[in-house]
Amino acid sequence: MLDWSEVEPDCIADPDVAEALAREISDQDYEAKVSRLLSAAYDRELLSVSNTRNCYRAAYSVLKGGDYYLTVMIDQALRARLRRWWEFWC
Length: 90
Fold this sequence. Notes:
Distance between the termini: 31 Å
Radius of gyration: 15 Å
Low-confidence stretches: none
Structural class: mainly alpha
Helix content: 55-70%
Order of helices and strands: HHHH
């Protein structure tokens, strides 16, 4: 689910997986849960890895280019924290 993209030619949606997930948890709750996990992982790595912010920014930049579902949750959890200071005025 997280690596699904509308624009990547190799990404093929599996409706059975989507339906099974929808029976277990709502989209809103799923996205909130993954967002919390991303935020916690980022905070933990900030304390232990010196170039965490740059690594996350680079990964986020690549993922945004592919229109991945995961970027929805990254936006919720980390977008403001990954932006450079001058981007807040753009």
